[in-house]
Structures are given as structure tokens and as C-alpha cells.
Design brief:
Two copies of one chain form a homodimer. By secondary structure, chain A is mostly helical. Chain A has 20 helices and no strands.
Chain lengths: 705, 705
């Protein structure tokens, strides 16, 4: 009989290759659409050129970081503090993550003009192209993620003949590589895109009074480049990290809890099956011509709903097949409930996000009304809204943790086994992300539509085209809210699973030396908790500061061009777009270093000074406060954005009114909130755990206290 | 030989009465100063009348709450879940806390016109009156606090003949009464003051273009009333709660750790001695005529520095005398270091606050510069500044916890006893607040100076008088920063001590039933941590929302008056001040209910559903995130305020420039940050613990999970 532990590799390779093949075929189909007029081609080309130039320089900087880390990890491996696979696993995580971003961005920059052009013939055709581009990105991310996992699994098991425990140990390292890369991509890209956006808006819209995406604005190309390097390349690397992180942390906990390949098989096979469900789901995303906005959204939802329901059903036999042997004491149906809880929690957090940030609901409508008493009240209102919006997701995640942890034990609370329960939490995260292929597709198509709108505007296409791209873009805002729910919910669950892996690692290394519990009355744990809870604040501050600094340099440059280059405002001379792109590139590369370095150094330093107990406190504190701040910032930002759009749609005085100006201030404050700091914190909380795990031996053996 | 446990009562009564006597004498001296012209008297009278009317209605609402709680506690006492003293102790805590606020406010409203009048003859005389009023408040708070403690100690020990453990148990309950009252006072007063302030500024300054404190502004009296009910009465109740909370939590832990009256004596005697040191310190606050601003600040600092150094020295023999007997294993000098660590941490957090919020330093100067690119960038900058400013205080508090916990054990980290260590942390909080008499005096004089400025403006006194009151006011901003450092630092330490008391209480009630540890890998603890960390966010959101709502009603009313009452702008007709005061009163009373009720219900509900483990997680989460959010909000608000003042002083374009307008938006956003939400969170984190302790029996006996 073929063993399950060998079947894993077949499943995951098939899943990974299916995803990549589908991505390639979809890419070919998308690229067959025409790019439109020469002007559109020219604009699209300069966006693509700027984005590629940025990524090239970003990768150069990141390569230095990876080289340094490779050497450090190598030395540690030689000294016996790490297994020799670690440095290489670290590298592949980084490379695959970067690749996800790069491929996603390439297809996105190749599809923006095509989407604009397709919108000339109708909304539906536009949706097809944009959603196609999103699908390429979505399936590239999951395909590459599962491929990396498959390759390492095969290599470590069949070439180096390692056991389950050692395999998951090595795998956690490529999580660290992926997280580091993701953080660079998110912070760098996020700084770029928001600096350009804020800079372009402040001088263009507010001071010079020209509309958004006006070709006379020198920062307009930088703004569009930013959408691609931030919202596409950054998001690709980010979700690659989330996806891979959730799977390997579940594998690691499964092995610790049950010591078998079976517990490791479940998350990997679920990921593979999830890809197939997502793939089939994409075929549901089509609709008749002349569809209304609501019908369009319905067609997108049909795809994601199909995938979610399919994986929910198929998980039951999967759990049944994988969890055999030592699992006698734990109910399989309990683990199935854990998976369902994860799936449901993702959807519910998405819904909560939508409720707080969409202008179809009261909170954002009311927020828009606060513009009537000026920008101060809309800012206070938005901050309050974001803070209040943390309550529902916290309750949802708490309920999910409760179910996922205790269900496997039949809710016999007092006798629950820690690792078996935490495996349930990790499975919940895997359940949440199993349909990432299609949820990411619906998410990633937004920036493409956004860019298409820019190109339509700049190349002077008919007003109706812009209306269509705007419809697509606004649809994208709703799906993005759902996407954020998954990203943030899975981050919290994965971080908890990783924290558990850290403790297991510490116990494995320290053996009898590890006598302390991680009790909250232990002052080391408490101090760690305080420091950890502070990190997301500092991180948010640094990234906002970066955007502010970079934006100011753009503001000055745009003002200079308006002043010095004659004929820009009359449309006679082209502004100097390249300088703005260059300024954004330099600023964001400079600014992305410090936050990432802090995320890596702080947990190691805290561990070396205060000991491993503080590290556990740090991880718990960072996860709790990071989850809250990420939701707070994302939702405040989203609500301001949509409140502004609600006013632009003719409410509370409409475009150009004083209320609108107040709302623009809110939106500008929200830009770094929702697109730089907020999403980066999702990555931060996982990177902290990964770093702690990789450097656990150092901390256990050499800490001061 | 007279026993130490009997000497306590003599010491504390002497300390308490000395403070109250000094307050009374100072009040007599202040009230001898003349109130100035009839116009000044009239304005001062209407401020006083509005403030008293507000407090009267506030107390009526709060009385209902206290009556309900008294009945609930009474029923629980009858059912045997509480000792019979608890309901009464709860009441006295509330009454004394309210009294502190009331007396402080009475003297403050009686001194504002006197300060303005004194400023006619010179800056120094003005300082004497204002500082005198502040001293009355400072010494009333500490005097009443220690009096309440002394009375209960004497009553429980000599009338009811209770042991040390039962005495501290009952005392913790009046902490809950004090905290509830403080929260009402802070939230209600904070909403009133900021609603009036924001409302007056938005319509008066921004829309109508009239200066601050202009008598034509219908909200101007409400604004001045607000300073008194918020910054004075609210602060009085708040610091009463901090002071009493720190002492009783140290007493309670001392008894648990060492089971003797001796460990209980130390914090109480330290408080009494601290009062005497503060008292002597006030005599150092005098300076030659024609002193510069720097010399004035120097004279204030001389007073607080003397008190701090004196208590630092005297603590050594106090520790030596009190800690005898069972303390053999723990080094007395170690506990002395814990006290010093607390004193030092308070000063350092104050310095950090000053660095981030004073316009003498770079952060605020740079923030002012961000106004050049508009209100959005100064808002982003201020939020970033506040978030970043959490890092230093976290490190300071972490270091203080480390020293206070481990020093008594000679830094033999692995063998430290939990309760003995936590007693050190509680002593650090007592050390920090031991000189509250004088630090509060330097803090509370600020609002008096602020009001004096308003009266000077409204009654048309000479420009030079306003300059002098402004100098006093700006001095007050610096001392307020220091005061905030003490308030927030002590809140974190006290909250940890209370958390420990909760755990001890749970163990005492549950006995063998309590098998679980409070390990971070326990999902109940983790869920509690998440929920707890969320509470300060929700709380901040609700209080900001309250200010926003109340301010909007003021904005509408002021606009209505400008529109409907003819001759206001020409100065021919008096506006209808009373309606604005009334609106603020109603709004703030309505809005203060929900946050307080949440603070009381959530820990009980979480306990009843998830069990005591979750409550511990909740307290830890709320303390960590509450500490961070309180600092973030206070410092962002302070920095915006001072950035605006820096511009008004002639930098970056000065008053009336576009930059100034942008800075005013920042300041307005900062108003509820620094004066409503931020300070209220300090109280919240302690109230949560107090409530948990009082309802511990209910949770241990009846929880679901």
C-alpha cells in the first residue's frame, strides 16, 4: 500500500503545477487582448518601465540583506546552532516570495492598458481582462508557495532522509525568508505608492486644482507605478508569506502534537485541494453583457463562494483520511470544525470590514457627514471608527480560537492537550487561506482596474470608459475588504501557531534547562509582553513617517516643476515624470531598511538580554496589539477613502465642496494607514516569530538573565 | 514597646491632617487676594456657576450608579460572596474621590479671576496665586486619600478586629469606588471640556475669525467651565484614584507576600512622609520679582526636586524600620532600590513626554514644519510622533519592573518569589506617587492660569496681563507633561500589582479548584489577552465619538446664535452662554455612562463565560495596550497643541497663515486625544482589575468554561 507520507508529494506537486499552468494559460489569454492606441501603449510602457526599474533596485538592496543573513545563518550552522539546510531554505523563501511579486507585477503592468481598452467595448470585457490578470497573480502566489513546500519536502525526505520533525524545522526557515522579503516589499512598495499618491494629490488636486490622474501632474506616472509596486508586487509577496506561513506552521505543530507524517499531510493536501477548488471557482466568474454592478459583484462572489463551499465539503474526507493512527484520543470531526471555524472567521472578518468601510453602510455614511464641520471632525470620526471596528474581529477571532482549540478534544476544556489544540488553531488558518487562489484573484484585480482608469484619463479616452473602470475599481474596494479579512485573520492565527512552535523549539533545545512556565505573573513574560505590544506602534510610526518624508520630497519636486518648467499647466510641455519616479524609488528604498532590521533585531536582542520567556511575551504582545492596530489602521483608511467617494457621488455637497475638501484630508491621512502601515504589521507579527524560532538556539544558550 | 502596626495609624492620620490643614490655610491665603473689576467678578461667577451646576448634575447621575452598585454589592455580601464591609468601602471611595474633585474645582474657580488680577501687578504674584490654588488641590487629594485609608484601617483593626489580610481585602473595594468615580469624572468632564473647546474653536476661530476667549463667542463660558470640570475636577478624582490605588495595592501584596502588618505599614508610612516632604517642598516655590520664564520653571522644579530627593533619602530608614521579621530572605536594600526605581521611572517618563511634546525640542518643531504641506501631513506626523513616543516609556517601565521585581532577591532571577517580587513593583508605584502633593500642585495650577487668561481677555484687561497669564499657562504645559508621566507610569505598575492581587484572590477563593496556570499557551489566557488589548481601543473610540457628537451640537448652536441673535458680532448683544453650557452638560452626562458600564461589565462577563484564566489575560492585555494607547494619544495631542503654539510664536508663517490653519486642525484632533481618551484609559486599566477582584467569587464559583 502506498503510504500517505509519499502521496503528499504527488498531491502538492500536482496542486502547485496546476496552479502555475493555469496562471500561464490565463496570462497568455490576457496578453492576447490589444493594448489600444499608441498613447495608451506609451503610458503603459512608462508605468511598466518605472515599476521594473524600481523592483530591480529593490531586489539589489534586498539581495545585500539576504547575502548578509545567509552568511550569518551559515556561520551559525557551521557552529552547530542550526541545521545546514537553514541558510538555503531561507534563501528560497525569499526568492519565491520575490518571484510572486515580480510575476504579479509584470502581468498587472501588461494588463492595465488592455483593461482600459477592453472597457471601450464594455464593462464585462474589462472585468474579464482585469480579473484574468488578478487570477494570474493569485494562482502564481499559491502555485509558487506550494511548489517551494513540495520541493523542500521531497528533498529533505527522499534525498536527505530526514524525519517529520526535522523537515518541518527546516521548512520554518523558508518562512522567515519569505516574511523578510514580504516585509521589504510591503514597506518599500507601500512607501512608494503612498508617497506618490499623497504627493500627487496634495499639489495636483488641492493646490493646482487639476483632477486625479491628470497628465499635467508630474507625479502621475509615479502614482501609477506605485499602484503596481505597492498594491501588486507588495501584496503578492505578502500573501505568499501568509500562505506558506500558515501551511508550514500547521505542519510543524501537527508533527509536535502527534509525531507523525499524517498530521503534516493534512494541511499540505488541503492546500493542494484548495487550489483545485479555487481553479474551478474562477470559471463561475462570468456574467451576461450589460450586467449591473451588483450582478458583477455577484459573479465574483459566486466564484469565491463555490471554492469555499467545495473545500468545506472536501475537508471532511481529507481529515478522515489523514488523521488516523495516533489521533484516537482526538475527534476528527473536531479538527474538521476547526477548519470550518477558520473558513467562517475569514468570511466574517471580511464582512465586518465591509460593514465598517463600505459606503453602503451607516458608519461610513455618517463619517462622510462629519465633513460638514471640517477636516478635524472627520479625522476624529475616522480614528474613532477604526478603533471601534476592532471589537467585532476580536470577538470573531476569539471564538475561532476557542472552537479550533477545544473542538478536537470534544470541548472537555480541562483536559485539552496544548499542542493538539494549537494544531487545531493552525488548521483554522490553513482553512481560511485554502481558497487564496481565487480570493487573491478578486483582490488583485483592483489595482489593475485602478491603473486602467489612470490610463483612460491620461490618454483622453471617452468619459464612459473612465466610468466603467471606476465601476470595476469600486467593485475592487469591496473585494479588497474581504481579502484583508483573510490576510489579517490568518496572520493572527498563524502567529499563535508560530509562537507555539517557538516554545516547542525552545524546549527541544534547552531540554531540562527549560523549567519556567510562560505565566503572566512571570515578570520576564510581562516585560516581553509590554515590549512586544509596543513594536506595532513603533513600526506603524516609522512607516507613516517614511511616507510623510517621501511625500514631502514629492510635493517639493512637483511644486518646483510647476514653477520652473513652463507650459505644463497649459498642456504644452510634458512634465518630467521620471524624476518623481526616481525620488519615490530612492526614498522608499532608504526607508524600508530600518523597519525590517528592527523586526529582526528586537526579538533577538530581547531574547539575549531577558531570555526566552520574554520572547514568548513579546510574541503574544505583538500579535495582540499588531492585530488590533492593523485592523484599526486598515479600517480607518478604508472608511475615509469611501467617505470621500460617497461625497464625490453627490452626497453632502459633492465634488469640490468644502465638505469634499475636508474628506480629501481624511483620505490622505488614511493612505499610509491602509496601504503601508496596516498591511505591513500583518507581516511583522509573523516575521517576529520566525526570527525567534530560527535564532532560538542562540537565545537559549547565551541569554543574560 | 509600641508596635509598628499601631504606629501606622498615628503616622497616616498626622500625614493626612497635615495635608488637609495646609490645604485649608493655603486656600485662606489665596482667597484673600482681590478678584478685580466687577466685570471680572461677573465672568468668574458665571464660570463658577456653570461648573457647580454641572458637578451637581453629574453627582446626581453618579449617585444613581453608586446606589445600584451598593445594592448589588449588598446582595452579594448577604449571599456570602463578599465581606459586609465591601459595599460601604465602595461608597467611601466614591465619595472621597468626588470630594477631591469638588474641592479642587471650588478653589480653582475662585482663583481664576484672582490670578488674572494678580497678574496686573506682575508675573510672580500671579504665579503665587495660581500655584496656591494648585497646592490646595494637590494636598486635598493626598490628604483625603490618606484619610480614607487611615479611617478604614483604624475601623477594621480596632473596631472589627480584623487581621492584615482581611483589612487589605476590604480596602481594595474602596479602590473600586474611587476608580468608578474617577472614570465618570474623567469621561464626563473630558467630554464637556473638549466639546466646548472644539465647538468654540471650530465656529469662533475658524469660521467667524474671532480670537480665542473672545466674549462674542457663545461657547466661551462653556469652554472655561470645561477647563474646570475636566482638567480640575476630573484630574482631582483621577489622581485621588491613582494615589489610593497604588497604596492599597502595595499593602495587599505586602500582606500576601509576608503575611504581616509590617509589609503593609511601609507604603502607608511612606505616603505620610511623602506628604510632609511635599509640604516642605512648596516653600521652595518662590522667586525674585522680574524672574524669567526659565527661572519660574526652575523655582517650580526646586520644589518638586526637593520633595523627591527628601523622600528618596528618608525611604532608606523607613524600609529598614518596617521590613523586619520575616523579610530575612529578601534584602531590604533591594526594596529600597525598588522605590528608587519607581521615583526615577516617573521622572524619566515625564522627561520623555516633555521631549516629544515640548516645542523646545526637535520632534514638535519638526511637526510644526509639517504644516507647510497642509493639515493631512501634520496629522500623519502627529500620529506617527505619538506612536513612536511609546517606545521610551515602555523601556523605562520595563527596566523599572525588572529592578523592582528582582532587586529584593538580589537579582537571583531563577529563585525569585512571585509575590515578594510583585510587592517590589507595587512599592515602585508608591515611590512614584509619594510626592504627588507637590507634583499635582504644579500640574493643577495650569488650568487656573488658563482660565485667568480667558478672564483677562474677556474683561478687556491690558495686553500685558494676557502675556503674563500665557507665560504661566505655557509653564503649566511643561509641568503637566511631568504630571502625566507619573499618572501613566504609576497606572501601569499599579495595574500589575492589582492583577497579582486578583490572582491571589482567585486562589484564596477557589482553593484546590485553581489548577490552571496563567500560561500564554493556555487559549483562555490568550483569548482574554486579545479581548483585553481591544478594550482600550474601544474605550478610546467611544470617548472620542462622544466628544465629536457633543462638539457637533455646540457647533450647530453657536452657528444658530450667530445667525439668529442680532448684534453679537458687533459686541452690542451678549450671546446666550447658558445654552451652550447646558448642551455640554447634557451631552457629557449622557456620554459618560456607556464607557464606564463597559469597563465594569466586560471583565465580569468575560469571567463568567470563559473563566478566571481569561480575566487574567484580559487584565494583562488591557494594561499593555492601555499604557501604549494612553501615551500615544496624550503625546500626539500634546505635540499638536505645542506645534500650533510654536507657529503662533511666529515660526513657519505665524498666526493666521495657512500653516497655522493646518496646525489648528491638528490641535483640534488632539484635543479629545490628550484630555479625554488618553487620561481616561489610565483609570480604565485599574478599574478593570478592581472590578475583577471584587467580583472574583462570582467568577470562580459560577463561570461556564
Amino acid at each position: 500500500m502506498v503510504k500517505l507520507e509519499d502521496l503528499i508529494v504527488i498531491f502538492t506537486f500536482v496542486g502547485a503545477l496546476a496552479a502555475l499552468l493555469f496562471a500561464a494559460l490565463t496570462a497568455r489569454k490576457v496578453l492576447k487582448f490589444p493594448e489600444g492606441t499608441d498613447k495608451m501603449k506609451k503610458i503603459s510602457a512608462s508605468i511598466k518601465q518605472g515599476a521594473k526599474a524600481y523592483l530591480k533596485r529593490q531586489y539589489t538592496v534586498v539581495a545585500i540583506f539576504f547575502a548578509v543573513m545567509f552568511v550569518i545563518l551559515g556561520v551559525m550552522a557551521i557552529l552547530g546552532n542550526l541545521t545546514p539546510y537553514v541558510p538555503f531554505a531561507f534563501l528560497t523563501g525569499g526568492i519565491f516570495s520575490a518571484l510572486s511579486g515580480f510575476i504579479g507585477m509584470t502581468i498587472a503592468t501588461s494588463s492595465n492598458a488592455r483593461t482600459a481598452n477592453a472597457c471601450i467595448s464594455g464593462l464585462n470585457k474589462g472585468l474579464r481582462v482585469a480579473f484574468g490578470a488578478g487570477s494570474v497573480m493569485g494562482f502564481t502566489v499559491v502555485g509558487l508557495g506550494l511548489l517551494d513546500i513540495s520541493i523542500w519536502y521531497a528533498l529533505l525526505k527522499y534525498v536527505f532522509h530526514l524525519g517529520a520533525g526535522d523537515i518541518t524545522s527546516a521548512m520554518l526557515t523558508f518562512g522567515m525568508g519569505a516574511s523578510s522579503m514580504a516585509l521589504f516589499a510591503r514597506v518599500g512598495g507601500g512607501t512608494f505608492t503612498k508617497a506618490a499618491d499623497v504627493g500627487a494629490d496634495l499639489v495636483g488636486k488641492v493646490e493646482a486644482g487639476i483632477p486625479e490622474d491628470d497628465p499635467r501632474n508630474p507625479a502621475v506616472i509615479a502614482d501609477n507605478v506605485g499602484d503596481n509596486v505597492g498594491d501588486v508586487a507588495g501584496m503578492g509577496a505578502d500573501l505568499y508569506e501568509s500562505y506558506v506561513g500558515s501551511i508550514i506552521s500547521a505542519c510543524a505543530l501537527g508533527v509536535v502534537a502527534f509525531g507523525s507524517f499524517n498530521a503534516m499531510a493534512l494541511p499540505m493536501i488541503m492546500a493542494a485541494v484548495g487550489i483545485l477548488c479555487s481553479l474551478i471557482g474562477t470559471f463561475f466568474v462570468r456574467t451576461k453583457e450589460n450586467a449591473t454592478q451588483k450582478q458583477l459583484l455577484g459573479s465574483l462572489s459566486r466564484g469565491t463562494n463555490f471554492a469555499a463551499i467545495a473545500i468545506a465539503i472536501i475537508s471532511l474526507p481529507l481529515v478522515n483520511i489523514c488523521l488516523t493512527g495516533k489521533f484516537g484520543d482526538f475527534s476528527k470531526i473536531g479538527y474538521y470544525f476547526a477548519i470550518l471555524a477558520g473558513l467562517l472567521a475569514g468570511v466574517l472578518i471580511g464582512r465586518a470590514t465591509e460593514y465598517y468601510t463600505s459606503d453602503s453602510y451607516n458608519p461610513t455614511k455618517k463619517l462622510a457627514g462629519k465633513s460638514e464641520t471640517g477636516s478635524a471632525t472627520i479625522i476624529i470620526g475616522g480614528l474613532g471608527l477604526g478603533m471601534l471596528s476592532t471589537a467585532l474581529p476580536i470577538v470573531i477571532v476569539a471564538a475561532c480560537i476557542l472552537v479550533a482549540y477545544f473542538a478536537p478534544n470534544g470541548f472537555k476544556v480541562s483536559t485539552a492537550d496544548v499542542n493538539a489544540g494549537l494544531y487545531g488553531i493552525a488548521l483554522a488558518a490553513v482553512g481560511m487561506l485554502s481558497t487564496l487562489g481565487i480570493t487573491l484573484a478578486t483582490d488583485a484585480y483592483g489595482p489593475v482596474a485602478d491603473n486602467a482608469g489612470g490610463i483612460a484619463e491620461m490618454s483622453g479616452l471617452d468619459e464612459s470608459v473612465r466610468t466603467r473602470t471606476d465601476a470595476l475599481d469600486s467593485l475592487g474596494n469591496t473585494t479588497a475588504a474581504t481579502g484583508k479579512g483573510f490576510a489579517i485573520g490568518s496572520a493572527a492565527l498563524t502567529a499563535l501557531a508560530l509562537m507555539a512552535s517557538y516554545i516547542n523549539k525552545v524546549k527541544e533545545i534547552g531540554g531540562d534547562k527549560i523549567t519556567d512556565s510562560f505565566d503572566l505573573m512571570n515578570p520576564k513574560v510581562l516585560i516581553g509582553l509590554f515590549i512586544g505590544a509596543c513594536l506595532p506602534f513603533v513600526f506603524a510610526a516609522l512607516t507613516m513617517e517614511s511616507v510623510g518624508k517621501a511625500a514631502q520630497s514629492i510635493v517639493k519636486e512637483v511644486r518646483r516643476q510647476f514653477r520652473e518648467i513652463k507650459g505644463i499647466m497649459e498642456g504644452e510641455t510634458d512634465p518630467d515624470y521620471a524624476t518623481c519616479v526616481d525620488l519615490c524609488t530612492k526614498a522608499s528604498l532608504r526607508e524600508m531598511i530600518l523597519p525590517t532590521v528592527i523586526a529582526i533585531i528586537v526579538p533577538i536582542a530581547v531574547g539575549l538580554i531577558l531570555g526566552y520567556q520574554s520572547v514568548v511575551g513579546l510574541l503574544a504582545g505583538a500579535t495582540a496589539s499588531g492585530f488590533l492596530i492593523a485592523i484599526f489602521m486598515s479600517n480607518s483608511g478604508g472608511a475615509w477613502d469611501n467617505a470621500k467617494k460617497y461625497i464625490e457621488a453627490g452626497n453632502f455637497g459633492g465634488k469640490g465642496s468644502d465638505n469634499h475638501k475636508a474628506a480629501v484630508v481624511g483620505d490622505t491621512v488614511g493612505d499610509p494607514f491602509k496601504d503601508t502601515s496596516g498591511p505591513a504589521i500583518n507581516i511583522l507579527i509573523k516575521l517576529l516569530s520566525m526570527v525567534s524560532i530560527v535564532f532560538a538556539a542562540l537565545v537559549v544558550n547565551f541569554s543574560l538573565l
